[in-house]
Amino acid sequence: MEASAGAAADDPTGGATAGSGASGGGGAAGRVGTGAGGATSTSGGASGALGGASGASGGAMSTAGAGASGTPSAGAGAGGVPQMIHDVFGSRPCEMTAGDWCQELLTGGIHAYKIALNSAGNVIVASVSSANDVGVAAYTAGGELLWSQAFSAGSWEFVEGLATDASDFIFVSGSSRDESTLVDTPFLAKLSPAGDVLWLKRPSVSSVTGGVATDADGNAVVALPEVMEYSGKAELLWSLPRGDTLGTGPITVNAAGDVLFLRGDGMNTFLTSLSPAGALLSDRRFAASDPSVNRAAFDPNGDLVIVSFGGEPGKWLLWRYSTEEDLVWSVTLTRNLFTADAVVLDASRNIVVAGMANAFGESYYDTYIAKYDPDGNLLGGSPLGERGGASARDLAISPEGTVFVAGDSPSGGFIARMSPLELQRAPETP
What we know:
This protein is an all-beta fold. The chain contains no helices and 36 strands.
């Protein structure tokens, strides 16, 4: 596999259309989205399966101009009175028995929620609004809404990736689906730190996306069956041909600027490493069978952890791989986790896993969050206690170890914050 440099032709008729909406939603095991008219559809979703390319190729590349409007930021109105911030997710406070705060997102639909932090510690959330547009919102670390934005990336959109760069610019990746052909076309959008849509690209491939990451120069690398890097000015810097890849999982850029991502060929899972210029450095097959590339995370050194199904209900395995060697260790996750749906690593290489709590007999589902040290030893854990049927779908963690979780609930979705002290509790069961 060799990377090819260059830029694809732009579609002069394309462009992001901003608009206001009132909601987004949480992700199930597969790709779930809301189509026009509010219909809900699901595709894929087998546990441990790699995402596959769909349909014929197509989808010209389009660019949206800077400043696409739709949802105003906070500002002073007439007489210096602050204006109301429009909320595309319709968020409101929700109650928890644990954690620092929780915001319920009244979206009424099931979507994939993505969560990230910027350099100021603000919380960025991306999903699909109830108006069937892409929704992005920023909250303070204390849960106060700063701004929200909605824009169109086509019809029947799905949000698959979210990342911020060192200057707090925001990149959102996803795909839209043609409702007549059911062909998925990916998109990559860049927003300013204040939420303005600066540009939108639609690479001319037919696929879903596997995520997005940024490098030290503010470039964005997006994972498709092809892997592409765009500059902050929307220029295609290089692309890696698809080859025999059926799908890609999480993607990251390490301290040296190398790009690492998971990919699969239908039978095997590989960790692929590329140079900053897109040249292939290594392509290593994992010894573990059927790891889920959708439940994986990298640390700053490029070491990798993967969560996979253990073959029995409520039994999940945590695997750690090193860039220098193959499998370092694997452990069975705490029985408090009935599912394991998201994983993240902190600055000390501790591992946080979130999933559905293994506690039934209540009138609601709950989220459980567990913390492990770098050697796989269980440090502690706690149920979220949101009591609304919450199910975690994505995690972010601050340098101090504060955990932020996003997921779905009967009302649509939620975001919540849990302090490090909450995760020092001794778990109820090992």
